[in-house]
Amino acid sequence: MYEMSSYHELITQLGIDYTHPGGKAATQKWVKQIPENLENVLEVGCGTGETLRNLRHQTAAFLYGIDSSAEMVSKAKAKTSHLHHIEVMQQNIEDLLFTHQFFDLIISESVLAFTPIDNCLPKLTNLLKPNGQIILLEMAKSQTLPHIAEEKMKIFYQFPQLLSKEDWLKQLLDNGYETVYIEKVEKETKTPVTLPQHLSIDMLQTLNQHYQFNTEYAHDLHTYLFIAKKRGDTHDHTRN
């Protein structure tokens, strides 16, 4: 009997660009809207580095990418090595090594959902300058998602929590953000995906379970783009 690989192991092995819901089209929804005159930009969970490469054509800011996977960091470094002012590092959100209020913009494409958000969102907010922006492209459940299905997904995807759109909005407001723009985006990616010729049985089982969840509960799981601005006063609104 074979044991399924974790979803995170599958994503790392596949090494696919734009693995987040909506793929490249979802990224392009926000990337051309980023503010001008940025100095420092952080992408958390940068994966293969494709979004960083996309950003390089939109801003002259110094771009930082972090990922918890050494393999993904290696892929991202290889993909961006010929581009100026990009640094990719292996770090976890919980242990970020950046200065308080260092970034003008922070980006998370289907990353924060996999972290304990009560801990990680305040840490990111602390790194953001007043009036800085955070861009989130994240999964959200609807009220129709059966509880048993939610619990199964939390185990399979290793979600600490599965938030609704309203939960995400509350998290942003509670952490000192305002002017929150929200847009529902198409989950299905139109970006062609090429799978490796040889996948192990456990990887195939994991991939199959992922597709089953997204097919069976297609009307109960949604993807939203959140663009929020941190309050511009000098008080620190992040929660302890």
UniProtKB/TrEMBL annotation:
One of its GO terms (molecular function) is methyltransferase activity. Gene3D superfamilies: Vaccinia Virus protein VP39. Keywords: Methyltransferase, Transferase. SUPFAM superfamilies: S-adenosyl-L-methionine-dependent methyltransferases. InterPro entries: Methyltranfer_dom, SAM-dependent_MTases_sf. Residues 39-161 form the Methyltransferase domain. GO terms for biological process: methylation. It comes from the Bacteria. The keyword Methyltransferase applies. This is Methyltransferase domain-containing protein.
